[in-house]
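U., I forgot to send this yesterday:
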Amino acid sequence: QVQLVESGGGLVQPGGSLRLSCTASGSIFSSAAMGWYRQAPGKQRELVARISSGGSTNYADSVKGRFTISRDNAKSTVYLPMDSLKPEDTAVYSCNLRAYYSHDYWGQGTQVTVSS
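Result:
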């Protein structure tokens, strides 16, 4: 069983920054695509950023230029530094692992609140 644990969420003022981390147990991290998703109240869960096993990235238009996704395979960890945060970024952010055998694993989520 793959287990994902997120950290780094919290309360920040508009314009501030946070860095999310997600660490995976198991042995398949390096061969898996990793992603960050978020879900705000009353909205569908949406892809924020994704990074392939080879390091290719893609982002939601709403976060391009503000968020970054990176991975450290030696630490089985994926990161999401978030800059210039806006109130509309408020959501529960969840880490996703897409295994090469076509199965999704999810972390429990971490709350990000952007408010003055």
